[in-house]
Design a protein that fits this description.
It is a single chain. The chain folds into two domains: about 5-85 and about 95-155, UDP N-Acetylglucosamine Acyltransferase, domain 1; about 155-190, no CATH class. By secondary structure, it is mostly beta strands. Strands 1-4-7-10-13-16-19-21-22-23 form a ten-stranded mixed beta sheet, with no helix packed on it. It has a six-stranded parallel beta sheet with strand order 3-6-9-12-15-18, with no helix packed on it. About 35% of the residues are buried. The protein has strands spanning about 5, 10, 15, 20-25, 30, 35, 40, 45, 50-55, 60, 65, 70, 75, 80-85, 100-105, 110, 115, 120, 125-130, 135, 140-145, 150-155, 160, 170, 180, 185-190. Helix content is about 0%, strand content about 35%. The protein is built from no helices and 26 strands.
Length: about 190
Amino acid sequence: MGNFIHPTAIIDNDARIGEGTKIWHFCHVMAGASIGQNCILGQNIFIGENVKIGNRVKIQNNVSVYSGVTLEDEVFAGPSVVFTNVLNPRSAVERKSEFKNTIIKKGATLGANSTILCGITVGRYAFVGAGAVLTKNIPDYALATGNPARQTGWMSEAGAKLTFSENGEAVCAITKKKYFLNHNVVTKIS
């Protein structure tokens, strides 16, 4: 299958690029970065040193993924998503030893122009709305919107909003899979 790397992209020595991955115009992947199989990096993407990106990840245009950020399998990062890695940056103060790890778990979606502060974990299949500013962890399947972001609902693995009945069950409108909500924890039951 092979990879596609646009001629304007810069891939540093010691960066690992998985089979079937496409890297488009004006991207820079730094040394030590690991990008999985069948990923798509849109135009003007920066991948920092030692960043870990799983398989089947899609990163839209104008996103910088800094050191300390991990994107697990099947994460979607919309256009102009912003990641940080230091809580209190100052130009004149070296803080590389203070980088906070940020983890975006399998299947999560980060909407266009959302901002993810460092040290945050976004749960599996969670959905961060466009323009949201995420300042705290969100659980699996959570929908978070606003500035600062707060949880406003739940999403299925297929990206449909879930509405739970009084007995804690919901059905995905797209796949008809069933989900169960118990003590603020969602599990897929079929």
